[in-house]
Amino acid sequence: MKRPANPGDHLQTNRRHFFQNGGAALGAAALGSLLGGRSSAENTGASTDHPFAPKAKRVIYLFQSGGPAQQDLFDYKPKLNEMNGEELPASVRGEQRLTGMSSFQSSLPIAGSHFKFARHGESGAWLSELLPHHQKIVDDVCFIKSMHTEAINHDPAITMFQTGSQIAGRPSLGAWLTYGLGSETEDLPAFIVLASAGKGGQPLYARLWGSGFLDSRYQGVRFRSGEEPVLYLTNPGGVCSSRRRSQLDAIAALNRHQFEKEMDPEIQSRIAQYEMAFRMQTSVPEVTDLSDEPESTFRLYGEDAKKPGTFAANCLLARRLTERGVRFVQLYHQGWDQHGNLPAAIRVQAKETDQASAALVQDLKQRGLLDDTLVIWGGEFGRTSYTQGLLTPSSYGRDHHPRCFTTWMAGGGVKPGYTHGETDEFSYNIASGGVHVHDFNATILHLMGIDHEKLTHKYQGRRFRLTDVHGEVVESILA
């Protein structure tokens, strides 16, 4: 059976074959598409006969780097408090491995949460007292309490979530989406990355939003706080806009001449990126200037929204970017890696993220954007229900736990006010409705109208996809 044509196949074609098949004409058409910005489903790999009518047009992914403790935020487990200080039953742990940080502990005492939980909204979702603003959005949110992954350490775990592989080098989720769907804006990149400034924690690498073996035009563009959100975007001293325009025209002519000889698609990308950078000299200052936002917006997101680089300011900026057609906005907030002193440390993280996360959902909803914007909140894994280190009346820590943890989604065709999956009474194992990282990513693509098995790219002799060789759409969370 003949395999359907794939959008990446032409990138693997040698020069002679390219010329034999009218490569020059195709190259000119591709360049026009690059500069025009938007792609059609027929030439990007998005399914045109999808049985599910996609609602989501864009994604805002609030990635909580470090692994938030589900037992202290979303996954209410009174059994942990009842057995506080007692040894975690061997039958609960089973054969699951531990990290090197707690594998040599002589004891694994259970740590009950220090925080009170209550039900909220018509859905009756459980929330910790750490998340008072989340109370306002529980009926708009779908909680997935049964996420799981194989990766037990940060780098492979975050790489797995962002690229579908624990091994670095694959395209990121945002790159796959822009490869499959193209862009809806000519003046801003389709994929933009925002990281909270001044936060310590596990390092963030550019490869997490990279394009891997896809064309470089699909990689994320990082915006920074401060006077220069995108490095090297502004003209150097003494260079005016008209002179820069002349320089770009000359460089483009040289690049086109090189393309005619070599037919390397990356040359087209180079031309397009120069042109995008030129347009961004106007669009970036406009979108990052929050002075036109009313005071009511800052009250909604919190006072931190006035401070560039904070999580709150980045959430507000994410909303502004999506309004202007940006396809995928990836936020990173570090600091959730609480191996010790968790009760004090998690209060800081929750305070920094709770109000703005909830505000983003509320803001999108009141503007009529939530229906076609998918908002995602979650980290790379969860935390253990036993303490790492000493358990005291005032403190405990939690080690990495990939077996079960909580993520939430809102808008974009997700069922609101719904909780999917369940963990055991120790929040240590999945009791029902397990969702693997590949299932999660397959569902995200599905919500965007893409069949995760068909969006592939041929590289080094095989066809790769975001979900590797497995993954199933989680049908029960679809609205």
Radius of gyration: 23 Å
Largest sheet: 9 strands, mixed
Count of helical stretches: 12
| Intertermini distance | 35 Å
Say which CATH homologous superfamily is assigned. Alkaline Phosphatase, subunit A
Low-pLDDT runs:
1-45
Number of strands: 17
Q: Could you spell the SSE succession in H and E letters? A: HHEHHEEEHHEEHHHHEHEEEEEEEEHEE
Helix-and-strand structural type = alpha/beta
Basic shape: globular
Supply the CATH architecture. Answer: 3-Layer(aba) Sandwich
Beta content comes to 5-15%
Overall pLDDT confidence? 89
Number of domains: 1
Descriptive account of the structure:
This protein has a single domain, classed as Alkaline Phosphatase, subunit A (3-Layer(aba) Sandwich). The strands form five sheets. Strands 1, 4, 5, 6, 7, 8, 11, 12 and 15 form a nine-stranded mixed β-sheet that branches. A two-stranded antiparallel ribbon has the order 2-3. Helix 2 (23-36) packs parallel to helix 8 (265-288). Helices cover 31% and strands 14% of the residues. The chain is an alpha/beta fold and 479 residues long. Mean pLDDT is 89; it is low at 1-45. It is globular, with a radius of gyration of 23 Å. The chain has helices at residues 15-20, 23-36, 78-82, 90-93, 154-163, 173-181, 241-262, 265-288, 295-301, 311-323, 342-366, 437-447; strands spanning 58-64, 117-120, 125-128, 141-148, 191-195, 221-223, 328-333, 373-378, 382-383, 400-401, 405-410, 418-420, 422-423, 430-432, 435-436, 457-459, 462-464. Strand 13 (422-423) and strand 14 (430-432) form a beta hairpin.
